[in-house]
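Task: complex structure prediction.
Instruction: return structure tokens for all chains below.
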Amino acid sequence: MIGRLIEDVAGVRRVLESVRTVGMVGASSDWKRPSYYVMKYLQSRGYKVIPVNSRAAGQTLLGETVCGSLSEIVDTFEMVNVFRKPEAAERVVDEVIALPKEKGVRVVWFQLGIRNQEAADKAIAAGLDVVMDRCAKIEYGRHHSELAWGGFNTGIISAKRPKIRML
Amino acid sequence: MSNSPKSRSYGFETRMIHAGAKPDAVTGARQTPIFQNTSYVFEDSDHAASLFNLQTYGFIYSRLTNPTVAVLEERLANLEGGCGATCCASGHAAQIMALFPFMEPGAKVVASTRLYGGSITQFGKTFKKFGWETIFVDTDDLEAVKKAITNDVRALFVESLANPGGVVSDLEVLAAISHENNALLVVDNTLATPVLCRPFEWHADLVVHSLTKFLSGNGTTMGGAVIDSGTVDWSASDKFRGLTDPDPAYHGISFYETFGDLAYTTYGHTVGLRDLGATLAPMNAFLTLLGLETLSLRIERHCANAEQVAMFLADHPKVAWVSYAGLAESPYRALCDKYLGGRAGSVLTFGVKGGYDAGIRVVENVGLWSHLANIGDARSLILHPASTTHRQLTDEQRVAAGAGDDVIRLSVGLETVEDLITDLDSALAVG
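Output:
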């Protein structure tokens, strides 16, 4: 079965709701880099994030041990979040495809600014769902009112009383 | 990618009432609370640092963002079909805020000679103090616009429906001309409102509003807004380096790289409002939200009343001419059909026979029309621009802006239209 490119707001929301553990390729220990504060943000919202960075393998980042590659991750994880240059995207997809099925990876998510159609097509052909050129922090915030605090159009219309989120 | 979701699944009126405003999670309050509040308690020092680094969501200080204002911003962005909005203290503040992210000393904008007179003064005189240069062009003359948008021009600024002249801009063509030279099209949509015109559908890049007018609708509230389409590639040329270069005040981030299509609106709040300080008050945001809930109903009646007043004036022996794009004989009728759905708003001008003195006599002899300098009120308003709002312009500028000696400007309100016509008729009889 082939995967699909998820572009609609509702589809992206379902991805975020169905995922608990994320392998983050290109995680940086530099607090100024988006990968660092997206990881920190996702952790604060209850996700387990396992950082992957060959140059920092074995170091501790935000309480997690950095893995040298995706294949070194011991746990199961449903999503790979890619913070690499577009040119490197296809190689990451190859690594994901090579992972044993029991690892449970279903989604490859390329960070905002990363578009690589060949990499996306390859992942989709291998049965993976793909989110491209989006930020997991922005998309999580869209569905939990936080994005709207900055004056953004979340596209969400609802007369339901929101649940209070307990951290 | 685009973070501006297609809001088309819900109709305009539904979004006009609901967009941005969920029930309060804690209290269940259905109407948007007025957060009359300056500052927000941090969870801990790490949270505070993350907020100041723009690395997490949250409120710091109401000069930058406020929960009530944010509801209005989302609603406006939604109604215009944009990705985000920055509200500010007035429509004039919105014009500065719109240009601020990508302007710098020596940078140029092209603006329509038909802009509202107050805007012409702001662009032509005050912006000069920032080193921003404005080239004024008659935007009906498309060849002149093409010539004026040289490589060093960053934006073209027009009104969709001009105040006070009854002029409609050819937005689709102006967008194409602007984009050929990597310039933005910025559209003031105050008179049309998103009920009549959504400039992003015609490829405009930014929209500005005076909230003071039809959006709030009752003459209670000063306010402005800048709305971003979210479709500009800020890195496509080196004109917009404010959004692409590292910002030393935020530890060297590039707004465009970090926030993607949210970059412009993020910059508007975290640099624009932070440093220019022209923030919208929460109470004013609340009043504007109340106004927006009835916007489409009011605009429908405003337009219907204005059409009748325009037709009455067009047949009146003491009236030399009427400028209203809704009239069959208006040269802007075709553009009005294309961009405004055939409805021309409720601000119009007419020329009274007898010039300057006759104009003054009309405004002094009405009893139901309020003689004041505003538009877009539930009440009908009348003004003689030459002796008031347009006094700061040269004679030539006044005529170009549709405010010659004989011009009377009307903003037709929501009263019984027969009463409005009767009152105008008796004032014209005196003149």
